[in-house]
Structures are given as structure tokens and as C-alpha cells.
Design brief:
This protein is an alpha/beta fold and about 400 residues long. It has 2 domains: about 140 residues, Aspartate Aminotransferase, domain 1 (Alpha-Beta Complex), CATH 3.90.1150.10; about 240 residues, 3-Layer(aba) Sandwich (Aspartate Aminotransferase, domain 2), CATH 3.40.640. Helices cover about 40% and strands about 15% of the residues. The strands form 3 sheets. The chain has a 7-stranded mixed sheet with strand order 2-8-7-6-5-3-4, sandwiched between helices. Strands 9-12-11 form a 3-stranded antiparallel sheet. Strands 1-10 form a two-stranded parallel ribbon. It binds pyridoxal-5'-phosphate (PLP). Pyridoxal-5'-phosphate (PLP) binds next to helix 5.
Length: about 400
């Protein structure tokens, strides 16, 4: 078979092989603890499931949704943004329902980039940014997220010549996988720079509701001037544990939303209208429905941080997301460590290198199982660490 060149530019997808390997281990009787994918074990809120049950029985909601989708969902998303961030968006012209935010993030590149155009992707980072840029024929600039910049992308580091050629920047705070958050002063600098260089800023915000200890994650549109350059992506996946339902949306200035709509109108026909109906209910009741999960996530975070420290790891307590980003001792490769964790101890982790070479030296823990299981997993990881140090 002859495949397109663009296919060979795509690196292997990090989560692709894990489910099969996990099944093999379980079949062998191993007590597997899966801290790999960002997919919590708890169900979507019961009332959202009930809304979905009823919506599924309505014939009108079984029809093609097209990009327009369910007006109720557009209304609920705009109302939620107003309530949550104090920003106003026209539900018809400035919002677009997505089949989960992943496809929107990836498809955006097709609307923005000409072949060879530069796009900044954080590394480690969510793979849809890199994939979208490569599929669009763009040239990714992989910006390393390291403790030096507190895991922030400092665009000035690229220098004026390169910046003048950048068309698109992906940013994600609260961040997957590093769990870093972005200070307002930083976001203001980014927006100013994007305006100066006419760069489209794709602000990926699926973790904005998973915050702890009083921290409130902003929308990029809280920054003055952001409307000129930004498009923001939201998702119901993480906040409501609805990963498989595939529902999110993009918000931004009408021209940008129109451009993404145009691409998508040739690729998909929008999320199931019944899912959008249930999503509208979820957003209208977001604060009440998310609160119990936040208590649970904070409990898990605290248990895992304490147990990992006791097991010999240096581990910070993040203010947001459902992840811990844990450094490894010098010289221990993340893929080696996570392979041993899986093969010897039945603990599924993602190596930092799975998020791009810039993630080397770390592994990611997803807080997707109860606190006791996280403590047990941490104890086992301590054994792997001791073995790695002795080797
Ligand atoms: C940073 C980031 N962005 C976007 C997504 C996509 O979420 P979804 O497509 O389920 O809305 C994820 C999911 O893991 C993510 O971690």
C-alpha cells in the first residue's frame, strides 16, 4: 500500500497500545492499578444520565445535528461562560459544539495553517496539537515545558524572527500533563504578544473546573484583547466524567468560529443532539454536580502525594487537574520506569516521553482510582524506584 507522507509524520499515539497490554496482565491474574488515561472511575452525574435517557427517546433529537446542533446546548454553554467567567458570547455566531474538544483542537490547524506554516506546541503536551499541525502540513515548534519556566510557554524565547512566522499557538492551563497553572500576568503577556504578531491563540481549557484549595482557573477571554486572537476550547469530559459521550465546544470571535465550522462541516455532522441536551442540563447545574467530584479528587491528590513522598519521590501538590507530574532521578528513563512499573508491579502510568521528548525525566499519575488504590500504587512504585536506583 502507498500511504500519504503525512501519515508517516505522525508519531505513535501514546495510549494506543496500553489497553491490550492491560488486558493481558489482568488475564494472567495481575492486580492492575490503572493510572494511565485521564478517565476517572466515577460515573457521570445520575441526573445527567437520566436527562440523556429521556432525550434518547425523542425522535427529533435522533436527527442530524449538523454544526448548528442543539440550540439548548449553545445557550447553556454561553450562559455557563457568562456565569463562570463573566464573559459574553453569542451562542449562534461565537460558539460551536464539538465532538469532544480533541477534534476541534486538531481540526483548527486545518483552518489556520498553510503548508509549512509554523505552529507552537508545548512539549510535553496533549497529542492532538501536534497531530493537528502535522495533518495540516504545518511545521511544529516544540516548546519544552520545564521547571525553569514553571512549565509555561515563554514565547519570547523564540526570538522576533521566528515569532514573525508563527501562525498558531496551543496553550493549555491548567496543564496536562504537568498540572501547572498560568498566572494572569503571564496570560496577559501571551495575549499581547499574539496580538503583536497576529498569531491565533488556541487556548485549551478542559480542566478549568478541576481546581483545589480556592484556586480559580480563568478563561483566556478574561484577559483584555484576547477576543482579537483567541479561540478557547471547553469539554464536558473531565468535569462531568463524560469522556465517552464526546461533547465540548469552542468559543471565540465569529470569524474564527466560522472557519472551524467550515472545516468541520466537511468532516462530521456534530455531536448527537440528545447528548447535547444532556450536556445543557449538566452545564446549567455545573457547580452542584461537580462539587462532589472535586472533594473526591482532592482526597485522591492528597493521598497520592503523601504516599509518593513516603515512597521516595519528590512530588508537588498541584492546584488543578487530575494529574501528578512526578520527576524521576537523573539517568532513569521514563519509558524504562513505566515499563517496569507495569511488568513488575501492575501499575499503569504514562511515561513523560509519551507526551513528546520534552517530557523525559517525569511520569504522569492520573487520579482515576480511589485514594487507597493510589496509596497502594505509590507503595509499589517505591519498590520500582528502589530497583532502578540500585541498577
Ligand atoms: C489537555 C487536553 N485537552 C483536550 C482533551 C480532550 O478532551 P475531549 O476530547 O474528551 O473533550 C484532553 C483529554 O485528555 C486533554 O487532556
Amino acid at each position: 500500500m502507498n500511504f500519504a507522507e503525512r501519515l508517516s509524520r505522525l508519531p505513535g499515539y501514546p495510549l494506543a497500545e496500553l489497553p491490550a497490554r492491560k488486558r493481558e496482565l489482568i488475564a494472567r491474574g495481575v492486580d492492575v492499578i490503572d493510572l494511565g488515561a485521564g478517565d476517572a472511575d466515577y460515573p457521570p452525574p445520575a441526573e445527567v444520565i437520566e436527562t440523556m435517557r429521556q432525550a434518547a427517546g425523542q425522535t427529533a433529537l435522533s436527527k442530524y445535528g449538523f454544526q448548528q446542533g442543539n440550540p439548548e446546548f449553545r445557550r447553556a454553554a454561553a450562559t455557563w461562560m457568562q456565569r463562570r467567567f463573566g464573559v459574553q458570547f453569542d451562542p449562534v455566531r461565537e460558539l460551536l459544539p464539538l465532538l469532544g474538544s480533541k477534534e476541534g483542537l486538531s481540526h483548527l490547524a486545518l483552518a489556520i495553517l498553510n503548508p509549512g506554516d509554523l505552529a507552537v506546541v508545548p512539549e510535553p503536551g496533549y497529542q492532538a496539537y501536534l497531530g493537528g499541525v502535522l495533518l495540516a502540513g504545518g511545521e511544529p515548534i516544540r516548546y519544552p515545558l520545564t521547571p525553569r519556566t514553571r512549565f509555561l510557554v515563554e514565547l519570547e524565547d523564540l526570538g522576533p524572527e521566528m515569532l514573525s512566522r508563527v501562525r498558531l499557538v496551543y496553550l493549555n492551563y491548567p496543564n496536562n500533563p504537568t498540572a501547572a497553572i498560568a498566572p494572569t500576568e503571564y496570560l496577559a503577556r501571551v495575549v499581547a504578544l499574539c496580538r503583536r504578531h497576529r498569531i491565533v491563540l488556541a487556548y485549551d481549557n478542559p480542566y478549568c473546573d478541576l481546581t483545589f484549595d480556592g484556586y480559580r482557573a480563568p478563561s483566556i477571554f478574561e484577559i483584555p484583547g484576547a477576543r482579537e486572537v483567541a479561540i478557547e476550547f471547553f469539554s464536558l469530559s473531565k468535569s462531568f466524567s463524560m469522556t465517552g459521550w464526546r461533547l465540548g465546544w469552542a468559543a471565540g470571535e465569529a470569524q474564527l468560529i466560522q472557519a472551524l465550522t467550515r472545516v468541520k462541516s466537511y468532516v462530521d455532522t456534530g455531536p448527537w443532539l440528545a447528548v447535547q441536551q444532556a450536556g445543557a442540563f449538566a452545564l446549567d447545574n455545573a457547580e452542584r454536580l461537580i462539587a462532589p467530584n472535586l472533594v473526591e479528587l482532592a482526597r485522591r491528590r492528597d493521598a497520592a502525594v503523601a504516599a509518593l513522598r513516603a515512597a521516595g519521590f519528590e512530588c508537588e501538590t498541584p492546584a488543578a487537574t487530575m494529574y501528578l507530574w512526578v520527576p524521576l532521578p537523573d539517568g532513569v528513563l521514563s519509558a524504562d520506569f513505566t515499563r517496569l512499573a507495569l511488568e513488575e508491579q501492575g501499575v499503569v502510568l504514562l511515561p513523560g516521553s509519551a507526551f513528546g521528548a520534552g517530557g523525559e525525566g517525569f511520569f504522569r499519575v492520573a487520579l482515576t482510582v480511589p485514594a487507597e488504590r493510589l496509596s497502594e500504587a505509590s507503595r509499589r512504585l517505591g519498590l520500582v524506584l528502589r530497583g532502578a536506583r540500585a541498577a
